[in-house]
Amino acid sequence: MKKVVGALTILSVMSAIIFFGAYNILKSKELLAATITSVTTSYHFLMRLGVGFLFDKIMKNRADYTKSWYQCRSWEKNLYKRLRVKHWKNIIPTYDNSLFDYKKHSWHDIVQASCQAELVHEVIVLLSFVPVIFSEWFGSAVVFIITSVLAALFDMSFVIIQRYNRPRIIKLIGR
């Protein structure tokens, strides 16, 4: 998945540069829309990679999973049941599968990586709404809001998966 995300990031940045250049020459509404779309897409890819990189450098997959932030709340189990997380969690792609490979890492290491992954995706959810600020200059607030909400929901799925799996991993550690 790392290679796919890297390639899509490069592709989105290149398309943003090309559309921006073409828009500056031709000044068409269609090219402005393509520029805004490709720049916003580039932002989302670059922001995700940047947040993940910063957390890796700062936390190094070492989080105290006993802290209250990482503990499942009483209402979460019912929510995950209603969302049917068990049925879709394995089809969602993982950026780096090796971090969660129990053959390479201890369950203790995996639960710490899970906490870091949760934090990464929570920060990304918040930063997904930054493009909405630009709607003031470019208009189309609805488009910026919709794309930001969709991006945030996408990353919330990763937060949910981490929080869904963590109690099971902690149970394995206790054995």
Salient structural properties:
single chain; 175 residues; mainly alpha; 7 helices
How would you explain this protein's 3D organization?
With 175 residues, this protein is mainly α. It is built from seven helices and no strands. The chain has helices at residues 2-26, 29-59, 76-82, 85-88, 107-127, 135-138, 141-174. It is elongated. The two termini are 32 Å apart.
Which runs of at least 5 residues are low in confidence (pLDDT < 50)?
none
Shape: elongated
Largest sheet: none
Number of strands: 0
Distance between the termini: 32 Å
SSE string: HHHHHHH
Number of discrete helical segments: 7
Question: What's this model, at a glance?
Answer:
The protein has 175 residues and is mostly helical. The protein contains seven helices and no strands.
Architecture blueprint of SSEs:
Elements: H1 2-26, H2 29-59, H3 76-82, H4 85-88, H5 107-127, H6 135-138, H7 141-174
Helix pairs in contact: 1-2, 2-5, 5-7
